[in-house]
Amino acid sequence: MTADRTKILRRIEIDRVSIGMYLEDVFDKDGVLLLSANAAIQSEEQITRLRARGVYSVYINIRKGKDIDLEEEAPDPVSVERERAYYEELARARVVHQNTIISAKEALQAARAGRPFSINRTRKTAEEIVESILRNPDALVSLSQIKGYDEYTFTHSVNVGILVTSLAREMGYEGEQLVSIGLGGLLHDIGKMRVPENVLNKPGRYTDVEFRVMKRHPDHGLAIVGERSGIAPLTKKVIGQHHERYDGSGYPKGLIGDRIDEAGVIGAVADVYDALTSDRVYRSAWTPQKALATIFQGCDRDYSRRVVELFTRHLGIYPVGSFVKLQSGEMGVVIRVSRGNLLAPIVLILFDKTGKRITEPLEMNLAEYEGTPSESAYRIEMSLNPKAFRVNIADYIQDKATGGIA
To answer: How much is the pTM?
Structure first.
């Protein structure tokens, strides 16, 4: 994606606008154009009129005109370091993500063909996931929002591997436990490679016979890894139990409640979340919010409430990759989640208040508007389907990893 480099824009409160600044288009709450782009502020009266029309904030072109006094904006050094660490890890995480897809593809294709695969290579991949998450827990998780429709089986395995590892770390798992549970996530569906392709890729509802065939894949998975030495019990729990449900309605064993290992529950929640938020041949991807709400409805029936609540808190109410509309009317992609404020993530604004696509995406930290006159305008109003606006979420996450967006 190519950004317009002729402008450097900054969003500021109307009270900080001063003579000598150049503003972009300014609209009132009804979408009426009050001031055209590249208009210079020449008097205090102009600012007063904008304020009187309910304008809380504006974009200024700081390449063309005056900027705010940045010395007044002394950043929190802890926040600066956190941001720096995130973006440094995001570049490394992209390499880990690509290598993990290759590794998962090799293992699953070998299993499909009945050939041996290198469990050591797959384990090394799990170790790389753990190392990335330990350096920064958010970077690799953000890349798990990049979905591959044509290679769903492989990308789904990678995403589940990432999600179970990051959630397990949040829950206090350490060291070898993290590697083992991550390996289980990467191989959780390896048993599907022994399911006939006409069943595995069927676009419609399964017949009873077909569903019985599909329900055997966790046991097939255990049989495949059972042929390899050094597979930890936690790995096997994820593979064998990620379709078990608390009320006994799951498969393959129909285990109830605490008879399901916590690693199995972690695998189940990660598996369902990634499946619901991915395009499938029989339905379009759900929004992250709809997927999380559906999973939450299964608390105490399908899943441990503790695991679901920690998973939701870990991803955020509006997870990375969510396409959201603000109360102001602007729309954009969530690119970061604040652990301290799940309702106020960092959003990359793609559409202005009138619904017009902007040429220069703008980062907006919603938490910065709390306690200001603009607070209500810069809250998230709803989550939307990005496809309806021709937005490919992966473009913005990938560009962040490669520095493609200023």
So the answer is: 0.78
